[in-house]
Amino acid sequence: MTWRAPEIDRRHEPYLGDERTMLQGWLDWHRDTLLHKCAGLTAEQLRVASVEPSGLTLLGLVRHLADVERWWFRIRAAGEDLPGLYDADEDPDADLNSIAQADPEEAFATLRAEVEAADRAVADLPLEHTFLRRRRDGGTDEMNLRWVYVHMIEEYARHNGHADLIRERIDGVTGD
Q1: Which CATH superfamily hosts domain 21-171?
Q2: Residue range 66-76: average pLDDT?
């Protein structure tokens, strides 16, 4: 039997709630949307690139978003001392690019595990919780957890748009 990405029962975005409920709810909806875009596809289909010259794939997006979940929530906001998931000195975008031999089942399990770990890592932190981010130019920025939530919603929303186009190219499926 050929492996296929699992179906998902996508949670609805929230219509009412305090700020944390709204941020978490919209992030969860976008997390589910990415998985929804991949549902039912084979490993080979998940490796289909969007359009030349781009090598962007659904499998690459799953790996990338697992990595940024870890990076922003666990490493940055919660201060956990962890390596990146797909660090490669020769390719800083290995999460997106090194998919030829990547195991889709493992990538989906990793994303789910990182989402759960990210949520646990910041569950008791207030949105006002601050941390420092080192910039590539050597400077630092003070940021808060609220920024991380907003950024991650934006990150998923942007990549879900990419996922829409890739999925349509693969089998014609469209929709939110």
Answers
A1: dinb family like domain (1.20.120.450)
A2: 97
- How far apart CA 127 and CA 20 sit, in angstroms, is 7
- Determine the Cα–Cα distance for residues 98 and 152; give it in Å rounded to an integer: 23
How many of the other CB atoms lie within 10 Å of CB of 26? Answer: 18
- How would DSSP label each residue in 106-132? HHHHHHHHHHHHHHHHHTTS-TT-EEE
pTM for the model stands at 0.93
Contact 99, 66 (CB under 8 A): no
Q: Which amino acid is at 4?
A: R
Q: pLDDT digit string (tens) for 17-62? A: 999 999 999 999 999 999 999 999 999 999 999 888 888 999 999 9
Query: Domain spans of the chain?
Result: 21-171
Q: How far apart are CA 168 and CA 176, in angstroms?
A: 12
